[in-house]
Target: alcohol dehydrogenase
Amino acid sequence: MPHRHPRGPRGLAGQAVTAVRPRPRRHRRDPGTRVGGGNRQIGQRVAIAWLAGACGECRYCISGRETLCEQQRNSGYSVDGAFAEYVAVPAAFATPVPDDVSSRDAAPLTCAGVTTYKAIKVAGVAPAETVAVFGIGGLGHLALQYARIFGGFTIGVDVTAEKLALAKELGADHVVDASAGDPAEAIQALGGADVAVALAASPASFDQAFRSLRRGGRLVCVALPADGTMSLPIFDTVLGGKSVIGSIVGTRNDLADVFALHAAGRTKVVAVDRKLDEVNDSIADVLAGRVPARVVFEM
Ligand SMILES: [Zn+2]
Model:
């Protein structure tokens, strides 16, 4: 068998050691259609998420946990966000939007979608487990759908009839009205939840979500109530083998998964459309709970 020289540095085991001169590399440069390290094309539709940049070198970045990077930059927080006609973002952090995903749907998926997809993923939802989603709004309506995609049975928990109706429409197996009594008791009466996802910014709902867990259950904390703290019963947590997990948005790869699922028709986005100059009124409407799920601004 003819001996083939290795073309470049390789492992040495089992090979004749040959001095290999690297071939001169021909650099091929494209005179301008590429816009950066992310291999983006001019005119390509892209999504800009909360994670506007990360260092790419720390233990979190190189282990697939870039959303934990301590050098990260965040859209609309530490760098300018996208409530504007034009925005600058590193190409590598502009995630391509597939043709089968409309820009209108891509916007909520880039925040609420990737955040709840990740929450369901880190909870390790397995088929036939029960997932209780606390808060059926912009995040919750997508969390329910991802829980179903992972094979879970779902319980939607909210305090308004419209949100509970939305949960049913999206295929929730049960809905629980948290304004009508203790939702944890109602969920325990159904057998308890394997996973409870806390999406409502109210510390009381975190407590309810934890108490709705059955043994081996996982509470996934996503909402950020101001000054919120949780008090956990130690005996119940230890003897019941329960976990509390914090989940913050998702990586660029998670967002690519979210787009792929949507392009395949596996998720549905509920949103209302507004003009960009209505942004301040819209924020007030969201805070007052006057918006069914997500607001999308048109340019
Ligand atoms: Zn990093």
The chain has eight helices and twelve strands. The first strand starts at residue 46 and ends at 48. The mean pLDDT is 88.
